[in-house]
């Protein structure tokens, strides 16, 4: 099997950290997103959304969307502690926080970046005012994570999970918007500093 990706991209980074946490090694194939390789007919035949990452299994089956790829590996390579949770409550809590951080954090940050920088203006309409609004929405959401980390060592509870992976990728990416965990977000800042020391994140 192989994963088509652009390594530093947030979605690809999520999958990479997830695989590293589980000790799974998969062949990687670089995709030139800036050059539009993901928009080619050949790539679209593999990816329903024409985005990376895409997992291609040995039989030719392909799976796009980073969390769907992580779920595949979670089921295909079971461990004593799933990053998606083990008990009904753990699974629900992790899913809740994963979606909150993704929908109100990571996706908003990506909207802000794309619209402010116009990085893909050759293929989409960029509205700088929407980018500025999205950046502000992200800033207003971050205290939600900070408050959670005041009462919990990890984003979704007592154990590191896929919700933490999404959050660390958010923290990495939002630097592009000149936003970082600072004194106004002490719990998020401390959590982020600790997470950066995990081998899966360092690697």
From TrEMBL:
Under PANTHER family, the record lists: GLUTATHIONE S-TRANSFERASE GSTA, GLUTATHIONE S-TRANSFERASE-RELATED
Q: Listed GO molecular functions? A: transferase activity
**In this protein, which residues make up the domain named GST N-terminal?**
1-81
Q: Which Pfam families match?
A: GST_C (PF00043), GST_N_2 (PF13409)
The record places domain GST C-terminal at: 87-203
Supply the Gene3D superfamilies for this chain. 1.20.1050.10, Glutaredoxin (3.40.30.10)
Kindly provide the name given to this protein in its UniProt entry: Glutathione S-transferase
Tell me the domain of life: Bacteria
The record's CDD domains line, in alphabetical order, gives: GST_C_GTT2_like (cd03182), GST_N_GTT2_like (cd03051)
Keywords on record:
Transferase
